[in-house]
Design brief:
Elements (H helix, E strand, L loop, with lengths): L12 H17 L13 H12 L8 H12 L4 H4 L8
Length: about 90
């Protein structure tokens, strides 16, 4: 991961949410890099990186929980990306 000026662990809930939102915006823009300097393309890996940087743990929580948490933080619905392209064709 690239060096960041605000690399210290956030203290409050708002700071953690802001950190997660920032990292996920990087992922969405395609600029989130792993330790090998390659772009991260897996959404679950991006969520894991975001939670790690925010000092949160995935332990004891389901993937559905974290998906809904991330959607809530980002303030957007991701249904657009999940639509089936075959659905509209008849």
């Amino acid at each position: 991961m690239e060096e960041r000026n605000d690399a210290a662990m956030p203290k409050g809930k708002k700071a953690k949410q802001a950190k997660i939102a920032r990292v996920l915006r990087e992922f969405k823009a395609g600029t989130l890099k792993g330790s090998d300097k390659k772009a991260i393309t897996n959404r679950k890996q991006a969520i894991a990186i975001a939670l790690s940087e925010a000092g949160m743990s995935m332990q004891g929580k389901s993937d559905e929980y974290w998906d809904s948490y991330v959607i809530t933080i980002m303030g957007e619905e991701e249904e657009e990306e999940m639509e089936d392209p075959e659905e509209g064709k008849s």
